[in-house]
Design a protein that fits this description.
Layout (H helix, E strand, L loop, with lengths): L15 H14 L3 H19 L7 H12 L6 H8 L10
């Protein structure tokens, strides 16, 4: 596998405290500052674009989904019992 050649630069202006925070995070991950910033920016960009994705549904499928999600919620006894069990992972207090 060959690495693709990096031929573009991105220059940004940043406050000292923001840069220090990003450098600390990169060091904590064992990554270079450049790798950390590129990975974080790429991940954020992908998430943003996925949030903007348009789904095309035909009318019958749309109506089916709309009908399904408009129904009242159903209680699943096993899940309700598990959540009432008091397990440490089941609460936000721990």
């Amino acid at each position: 596998m060959t690495a693709s050649k990096k031929e573009n630069n991105l220059n940004v202006r940043i406050k000292s405290d923001e840069l220090a925070l990003i450098k600390r995070a990169a060091e904590a991950c064992g990554k270079s500052l450049s790798s950390f910033v590129i990975e974080a920016a790429t991940s954020s960009a992908q998430k943003e674009l996925m949030d903007q994705r348009f789904l095309h549904l035909d009318a019958a499928l749309f109506d089916s989904i709309a009908e399904t999600i408009s129904q009242p919620a159903k209680v699943h006894p096993e899940l309700a019992s598990l959540l009432r069990s008091g397990s440490q992972w089941a609460t936000s207090e721990h």
